[in-house]
Structures are given as C-alpha cells and as structure tokens.
Write a structure and sequence with these properties.
single chain; 257 residues; alpha+beta; Rossmann fold; Tumour Suppressor Smad4; 2 domains; six-stranded antiparallel beta sheet; 5 helices; 17 strands
C-alpha cells in the first residue's frame, strides 16, 4: 500500500443504496481504476464481497468492504467520513480458496474456486447417494442425504453453519465436511479435515439421483464426481476495521445465542 493516501477504487452492487453510496464516495475520494488502486472498496453485502473477490482475483489487491446489503458479516460498517484513516488502520485477513474439479456425467470437466464452500446438492425430489473418499481412502461408502459441503474457515459461518457444521477459527488449518439433511448414516454429523486433505465425492446412481456441484455461486449440474482441495497458491486479502477483525467476528459468532 502506498505510504501516501492509498488510492481507492470503488465498486458497488446493483442495490440502489449501494449505487448511491458509490456516487457519493467517488465524489469525495476520487475515482481510480481497479487495476491502478492500492485498495478496492466494495459496497454491498456478503454476496457482493464474494463476487468482488472472485472478479479481482488476478489483481492481488486487498479489499475493504462496507455494508450496503442485508447481512454484512464480511463487511465493515458503512461510514463516509474518515475512510482513508480506517483503511490505513485496518487489519488483514488472508484466506485461501478451495479448488474444485467437477467431472460431469458427459465426461466434461469444469473447474472453479470457492472462497466459502463447495457443496453437492440433489437436483430432484430424490435424495442423493454419495461416496466420500479422503486422501484416497474411502470414509463413507454410501451417504444418503440432500447433499454435502466442504467449507473453508472463512465460509464456516455461512452455509456450513446453517447446515449445523462447526465454526472454524481462521488459523485452525482445517476444513469442515458437513452433511446436509443426512438420512443414512443418520447420526453422522460431519468431520473436520486437515487443510491439506484432498476430498473426492462420487455420485452413486447418477442417472436416477442427479446431483449438482456449486463452488460459491458457480454451479455445475449432473456431476459424476467432484474433487476439491485447498489452493495455497492463491491468497486473498480482506481488510477489517481495527478491533473488528474477521478472527474476532468468527470467535464472537461461537458465543451468539
């Protein structure tokens, strides 16, 4: 980041309040192209933060989010004044995405990165039947369920938490493997995996019980198998106001009632 005032590039979701904030902030702090910025300021909700992280992946710029959406777990409070000072004092959170490789029933292979999670979901009224293999060793021969997901620590408070998965501290170096409405084995509640684990999920009876794979918001339908592992070659940086780091938010979430 520049020793002088950081060059801020603003990007906003299509929500009216985000677009209005974009106009005011650019008028106040100037307009900089994304490629030329020191910091990207994302205006929206958590979904837009994920979209911005994906869209600017190759730029390698830190992203400071301000909440103009509905959730805002990954965002800072929206305040127009003192933005440069807040950005300078912000704490960094470095996260690594999951790399997904999905093989379709047609034989086509599609790849994507997931910052939050990779989820496999049934496509019809019938439950999915899945085989789970970790580092080449079968762990569950037949999981009958609505689906299953693998979550990063950063994504553990999102879909994973809604599916009753564990909240993971950012520095824990583990991934969460969480079933979605498991029918058999009924008592299986998931597992914590080393962050180096390679997960392979095979779809049983794919003709009768089709399954889709979703990496954040990128969906691949009619998959036969999906492989995923943490990609440590990719580092994403988010900025959070001093005293309200992502680590603190994750910890606080574990004590919310």
């Amino acid at each position: 980041m520049s020793q002088d005032a950081p060059r801020l590039a603003f990007t906003a979701s299509d929500r009216p309040e985000a677009q209005e904030a974009l106009e005011r902030l650019e008028a106040r702090y100037g307009r900089t192209r994304l490629e030329d910025a020191d910091v990207i300021v994302a205006l929206g909700g958590d979904g837009f933060m994920l979209e911005t992280l994906h869209r600017t992946l190759l730029l390698d710029h830190p992203i400071y989010g301000m909440n103009c959406g509905s959730v805002g777990f990954l965002m800072n409070d929206f305040v127009e004044e003192g933005l440069v000072e807040r950005v300078r004092a912000a704490e960094k959170a470095i996260i690594h995405p999951l790399a997904m490789s999905a093989t379709c029933r047609s034989g086509e292979i599609q790849t994507a990165l997931a910052i939050n999670e990779v989820s496999l979901l049934r496509q019809t009224h019938q439950t999915a039947k899945l085989r789970i293999v970790i580092d080449g060793r079968e762990r569950i021969g037949e999981l009958v369920c609505d689906g299953v997901l693998v979550s990063t620590p950063a994504g553990s408070t999102a879909y994973n938490l809604s599916a009753h998965g564990p909240i993971i501290p950012l520095d824990a170096q583990v991934l969460a493997l969480t079933p979605i409405s498991a029918f058999r084995p009924r008592r299986w509640r998931g597992a914590l995996l080393r962050h180096t684990a390679r997960v392979r999920i095979e779809v049983l009876e794919p003709d009768k019980r089709p399954v889709s794979a979703v990496a954040d918001n990128y969906e691949v339908r009619d998959v036969a198998s999906v492989e995923m592992a943490e990609d440590r070659s990719v580092s994403l940086c988010m900025l959070f106001d001093a005293g309200r780091s992502l680590e603190e938010r994750v910890l606080a979430e574990q004590f919310s009632v």
